[in-house]
Amino acid sequence: AQSSEPSSGNKTSDSSATVSTEIDTVQVGILHSLSGTMAISEVSLRDAELMAIEEINAAGGVLGKQIEPIVEDGASDWPTFAEKARKLLQQDKVATIFGGWTSASRKAMLPVVEQNNGLLWYPVQYEGMEQSPNIFYTGATTNQQIVPAIDWMLENQGKDIFLVGSDYVFPRTANKIVNAQLKAKGGTVVAEEYTPLGHTDYNTIISKIKAEKPDAIFNTLNGDSNVAFFKQLKDAGITPEDIPVMSVSVAEEEIRGIGTDVLEGHYAAWNYYQTTDTPENKTFVENYKAKYGEDRVTGDPIEAAYIAVYLWKEAVEKAGSFEVDKVKEASDGIEFKAPGGVVKIDGETQHIYKTVRIGEVQADGLFKEVWNSGEQVKPDPYLKSYDWAEGLSQE
Amino acid sequence: MIKKYSQGAYYGVFFLMLLVAPLLLSEFRMGLLAKFLCFAIIAVGISLIWGFTGILSLGHGVFFGLGAYCMAMYLKLEASPSGIPDFMEWNGITEVPFVWTLFKNPVFAILAALLLPFIIAVVIGYFTFKNRIKGVFFSLISQAVVVVTVTLFIGGQHITGGTSGLTNFFTVFQVPLADPATKQTLYFVTVALLAIIMGVALLLTKSRFGRLLIAIRDGENRLRFLGYNPTFYKVFIYALSAAFAGVAGALFVLQVGIITPEMMGIIPSIEMVLWVAIGGRYSILGAAIGAILTNTAKSFLSESYPDFWTIFLGALFLIVVLYLPNGLAGLVEQLKMKFSKKEKVKEAKQSEADTLVS
Amino acid sequence: MSVIISQLFNGLSLGSILLLIALGLAITFGLMNIINMAHGEFIMIGAYTTYLLQQVFVQHLPKTLFDYYFILAIPLSFIVAALIGLIMEKTIVRFLYERPLDSLLATWGVSLILQQTARSIFGAPNVAVVAPEWLNGGLAVAGLTFPYKRLFIIALVFISILLLFIYLYKTSSGRRMKAVTLNREMASCLGVSTRKVDSTAFALGSGFAGIAGCSLTLIGSIGPTLGTSYIVDAFMIVILGGVGKLKGTILAAIMLGVLSTFVELSTSATIAKVIVFAFIIIFLQWKPTGLVNVKVRALD
Amino acid sequence: MKPILSCHDVVVDFSGFMALQGVNLDVETSGVLFLIGPNGAGKTTLLDVICGKTRATGGEITFKDEISLVKLQEQKIVEAGIARKFQAPSIFLHLTPFENLEIAMKQKKKLFSILFAKLTDVQKDKINTMLRKIGLFEVRHEKAGSLSHGQKQWLEIGMQLIQEPTLLLLDEPIAGMSGEERTKTGELILEISKECSVLIVEHDMDFVRKYSTQVVVMHEGKVLCQGEMKDIQENEEVKNVYLGRSG
Amino acid sequence: MLHVSHLQAGYDETIILRDVDFEVPKGKIVGLLGRNGVGKTTLMKVLMGLLPMKNGNIQYEGKKLKKERPEHRARSGIAYVPQGREIFSDLTIRENLLLGMEALPKSKRSANIPEEIFTWFPVLKEMIDRKGGDLSGGQQQQLAIARALISNPKLLLLDEPMEGIQPSIVQLIQDVLVQIAKEKEMGIMLVEHNLDAVLSCADQFYILDRGRMVMSGSCDEIKEEDLQRHLAV
Ligand SMILES: Nc1ncnc2c1ncn2[C@@H]1O[C@H](COP(=O)(O)OP(=O)(O)OP(=O)(O)O)[C@@H](O)[C@H]1O
Ligand SMILES: Nc1ncnc2c1ncn2[C@@H]1O[C@H](COP(=O)(O)OP(=O)(O)OP(=O)(O)O)[C@@H](O)[C@H]1O
Ligand SMILES: NC(N)=O
Ligand SMILES: [Mg+2]
Ligand SMILES: [Mg+2]
């Protein structure tokens, strides 16, 4: 029996007065793009979240209640994300929402969850510079992915970096950070190119790459564009030995869609790989494949979506309540043995501590880890602990 | 006479339903309905240019978006305590661009939401219509305008907010937007504006001007040889419908709280035309109802079948276009005809018999 | 100099891809006046057909044969897309010949259905097609490399156009097609079987989309939304060239390809896109019926 | 008498094909001028050039002695007082005959005048009179699309008349009309010709004989000869290229 | 060769032809007269299969015609010159004429246009590679007739074929029609307002009014007052 206030109330927690035996479920919202261009990535996140819910339910649920997911389609359209989030909170009165992929979709949901005092778990690496009281970020912030990746590139690949990205908030902000970082550390940005989302012809950019002869390429392209970029890069005769590419949005699933043959030898920075060697991951990968098919692969955002559900469960149980304010309060310091290693919620930023990993694409389409941060890195969404980042954020 | 009366009755029932709706709907559903009413305003404008004048614009999203952005800029400034919108800070902008400063003034923002689409439509319309670009050529040019606008808005993200668009507003005229009272007021304002716009549209179509629009649809070159310059008429009606879309955009932002470049894109622009096709392109009321019903169906389908709803929606579009070429309004008309026809046939038989006798 | 040559090649290559995706539309839209918004989905069908054929080769045939799958994939993509086009013509498009603008709306519905169906069958994530070995690498001439894939696509486009030209202008079947698209009723009064001609034409247009899809697997992604990224460009090319004018379509595609690559070289992809579409708008103001235009005596 | 319209050396070149090769023609202020000539002689083209549908490649056309037509926009030419009926009927199919006439009627045709136009009783009477004149009063509220070919022709003539033009160009106005209706049309034309000059293209020689004041014969883009019908009939060359043995 | 009885047809709900009976014998030219809007064109469309009949009986060469599509009727030997010409404006004259041969069995189609056509319509030969749409009205009309004749039909439906054609050629066409009706045993149905033309070449006539054939007979014995009665407004 939980107490509740209307503002955060969910259907089940209204039962403080009438302890009904019937109502033994708690509803949560799952809000990803199941149609439109982003569906290629987001459908798997829904799958991972549903799998986590199923596991938790099988193990007895949360606070004795079975979790009942309400799935909605964000349709790759940010206003739709806002509308569906509103529907989940106002109409269905869900206890929390798991959802989003693009930063734009998160920015659209943000005012909705804040105004309704709801809760959103966002599972994808992003550009930082944000900290909503109603959002938990289970993907990497910049200091857990981009910053270490650039450091690693400077050390192992060279000083001249070519930046290519899709034209939206994540790549733009990420590259602003990269510019500052390279400047401070003696690297050079030889060029910075953006293409519209969904762009498919990279010949001209590749000509520019050939002309500039950089030591490496830092790639923040998103979605379909990656396929075109890598295929055409290979056709132009540029191999990873000549100019390696470091990507931050290419995980195992994207590799399958691009074709291993063109990606082998390139790099990506993440917190988790399907090949990450932990006992938790072994079971996770096995379960995922058993449930969704041998040919499916896991990857960083999939893992981040999966652990989001568990972290929420832990927080709810620690709080002894589904109430948003209590869950938030209880969240600080919660640890979970995630497939990618132990993670911990940082209550102050509502991000999580994660291990950073650099991987190289192998012939089988999976990653070989070539470097990791050893310990979990404390999330620093505003990069306050980096001198060179001063002035990047206004907070 | 009877026809006029019955048409008035339809309108009466329609607005009566809109007025009692808040009593019956939950807060969320009412929010949705308010959004659909904004769409209905766009639909009325599209019916004017498409159904009556024969201009198929596949780029009305642009005008909707411009209206929405005008309003959103004002809201965003009001929601930025530091004076600089959050996304500009992320983009390292330290001073609000001049264009933005104008939108601090709500009156300017509202006027701009109305006039900017109008003016842009006048410019686009004047050149394309003067150069006698018609039919599908015009439709595809309007799509090209969409592509240019959307690409510019996404590319100019330091001043437009890029793909993410503008969102995270708190107040309008210092009143909290999330307040139920504000929402209710906005709803009634939308209903009132819809009524005004439908009224204007009706007046226009019932007048000689309306018949001229139909003449343009049937053969605008013919009209030139009767001493008219169809260009001005087309520009006017096109710009008017653009202004309607702009008004709808401004209302949309107030109630939905977000506008993105994709909302101006090709897909929404085509969907707008589909609402009108479903409702009945030759009927003002039909178009408005089409917008409301189609979007209701879309919401309902996507909530009930998140995995397959686009299949159902596609099938709905397909079936309506195939089997109801004049939309729901056409269907109603057909049914009415059926009833009255029976009587007419009887009459005709009677008169024929008379002539045979005489 | 070498930059100019390589950019010219890039432009030609982009142009040939644009042409390939527009070729089918030049028939269904240019000749038949059907605004087929599902054209992109036929491209997608061609791409998935190629993917499936690749899977068959990988799983059921000896490795040595793998290099030949792509040769087989071209006609197969054509056939599959043409067949689905045929079904679509018989069940939907047939009712829309007198209502070209409505065809846009109905086929939009079809496009939604096909996309989601593909997602249900193949899953939401992209799938990969591995190019045959002989298409990897490039031709090195005077310090420049011309990727074989690009050369291959250019050749493929060239052959497709040649065949289409012969069909339309040298055969009686092509003449019937033009007659039916110009005046369906009268053609039937002369003894032309309009239904057969309509189906053939639509299937042909869809088939070309299939070939486009097949070749796009060499350079881009294969997913349910593949078609949406190309559909607008394809329409613009047909319009710019002049509806119903094959020559115009070819010119327009190459013009846009070259323009786009050169603008992008000196600016950015975003600006290039804006300029190319602005160019289309302005060009049509100047020549309202496209590059190669038709004069008609009729009043409207 | 001064001509109301004079064409001077008008040339039209359709990318190589010279449809008009220097036409010189004067139209008098009143009376019915018939334009005849073999198929393809350039009669329709000449009317097209006068009303601005086709642009002349060379030459000059002056209306009322002062207005040069060759560069004027179509609607400006109409404003100046030239009305034109096309060879194939082109009316507004989705409007009723009444509405067709309402739009064609002489009035201010600027956007804002139309926007606030009201149908006055005078106008209504005028339209109804015209409807009776062209025999469409009974069907005045039916959609024009369902009229027969002949009825459409009539409607179009009505639309020209109600503009009260100074010069009326008619391209085969009696095409598709039966005997009685031809006579009626002829009477109508005679009546109009009192107030404005009429230039008619026609192939029906009986009709020409009956209603013509003057006849101009065109051949291969040029004016072959001009005169009264009874003289023209006897012209050997006209017989050869146009009339044939029956004449 | 063509017997029509109790034919009823119209558009949607409106009935135009109420009860039409007539016949076209082999080798004869039958003139069909009637005021504007009585349904002559409608009748042609029904015969050609462009418009469904609501009721009645059409017997062509001993077979009943029901729902055959126009192309089947064309191939069985019915040719049609519609009111309004309907030529293919974007195709050349040659292509237009070649299309006229579509109704012939494959073996009889040729890539060349029979000279005969050009002897009747020399202007078509001069302009053979010009676009149909560029032709003048009368030239288009000639093309439409030529296109119908080229398929050697058994039954020729002509809807106001002389419209817009210069007198000398009208004369010629009349001669040609009379000649081929005889030589080729062609049945010709001629809708024409030009009374003289009908009377000078047709063998029989019918007058259509109020959805019925109100009068018929041989052209030689037609009476002026009957014509007046039925054709006057
Ligand atoms: N757009 C065009 N392109 C090429 N030739 C054309 C064009 N328009 C007309 N012509 C040609 O110009 C000539 C004159 O045509 P026009 O229509 O003026 O003849 P007309 O005297 O009206 O004949 P008719 O009595 O048959 O109506 C014709 O030979 C025609 O083929
Ligand atoms: N598409 C249509 N829909 C409805 N009614 C039509 C249609 N076409 C013709 N009609 C009506 O059918 C009647 C007969 O028309 P039809 O064209 O057959 O007449 P017609 O005898 O050929 O006349 P004309 O001598 O003027 O060519 C007319 O009253 C006309 O209003
Ligand atoms: N957060 C991202 N990848 O948009
Ligand atoms: Mg003419
Ligand atoms: Mg007729």
Can you give keywords for this protein?
heteropentamer; A: 395 residues; alpha/beta; seven-stranded mixed beta sheet; 12 helices; 15 strands; disordered N terminus; B: 358 residues; mainly alpha; 2 domains; two-stranded antiparallel sheet; 4 strands; 2% strand; globular; disordered C terminus; binds adenosine-5'-triphosphate; binds urea; binds magnesium ion
Question: How would you sum up this structure, described in words?
Answer:
Chain C: This is Urea ABC transporter permease subunit UrtB. The complex is a heteropentamer of chains A (395), B (358), C (300), D (247) and E (233). Chain A has helices spanning 39-58, 78-91, 103-115, 146-156, 169-185, 203-212, 225-235, 252-258, 260-263, 279-292, 300-319, 324-331; strands at 25-32, 66-73, 97-99, 120-122, 135-137, 160-166, 188-195, 216-220, 245-247, 267-270, 335-338, 341-346, 351-353, 357-361, 367-372. Chain A has 395 residues and is α/β, with parallel strands linked by helices. In chain A, the strands form three sheets. Chain A has a seven-stranded mixed β-sheet with strand order 7-6-8-9-10-14-15, sandwiched between helices. The radius of gyration of chain A is 21 Å and the shape is globular. Chain D is 36% helix and 26% strand. The relative contact order of chain D is 0.18. By secondary structure, chain E is α/β, with parallel strands linked by helices. Chain E is built from nine helices and ten strands. Chain E has a six-stranded mixed β-sheet with strand order 6-7-8-3-9-10, with helices on both faces. In chain E, strands 2-1-4-5 form a four-stranded antiparallel β-sheet, covered by helices on one side. In chain E, helix 7 (167-183) links the parallel strand 7 and strand 8 (187-191). Chain E is globular, with a radius of gyration of 17 Å. The mean pLDDT of chain E is 89. Classes of the chains: A alpha/beta (395), B mainly alpha (358), C mainly alpha (300), D alpha/beta (247), E alpha/beta (233). Chains in contact: A-B, A-C, B-C, B-D, C-D, C-E, D-E. Chains A and C meet through helix 1, strand 7, helix 6, helix 7 and helix 8 of A and helix 1, helix 4, helix 5, helix 9 and helix 10 of C. The structure holds adenosine-5'-triphosphate (ATP) (2 copies), urea and magnesium ion (MG) (2 copies). One magnesium ion (MG) binds at residues 43-44, 87 of chain D.
